[in-house]
Design brief:
The chain has 114 residues and is an alpha+beta fold. It is built from three helices and three strands; from the N terminus they run H-H-E-E-E-H. A three-stranded antiparallel sheet has the order 1-2-3, with helices on one face. Strand 2 and strand 3 form a beta hairpin.
């Protein structure tokens, strides 16, 4: 129960386990993956929550047009990474909610924790 006579002590108690909770959130995000298909399924990219592209799949029919293939690969990678960024944001928001910290709507907390 919060002590109204010691608000700083209460705040420090909340932050005491923050490092561990942030590490757990980062680990949870890292275990998730996002798969994106572009060009009608001609190219797919799979990214993990560490913001790494772990696999690219290319339909052999896409091999004939180099410029189109390059564009599709870039689009798939960018979309997959954008989705995994959302994973990190979700996990960090959970930590913030557990600590009872208010954040403005739309605030990207993941930028605070590289």
């Amino acid at each position: 129960m919060p002590d109204p006579m010691n608000p700083i002590g209460d705040m420090l108690a909340k932050f005491g386990g923050m490092k561990q909770k942030l590490d757990e959130a980062a680990k949870a995000a890292a275990q998730r993956t996002a798969t994106v298909n572009v060009g009608g399924g001609m190219v797919s990219a799979i990214a993990n929550g560490k913001q790494e592209i772990v696999r690219i799949n290319i339909d052999p029919q896409a091999m004939g047009d180099k410029a189109m293939l390059e564009d599709l690969i870039a689009a798939a990678c960018n979309q997959a990474l954008a989705q995994t960024k959302g994973f990190v944001q979700e996990e960090m928001q959970k930590v913030v909610a557990q600590l009872g910290l208010p954040l403005p709507p739309g605030f990207d907390i993941s930028k605070l924790f590289g």
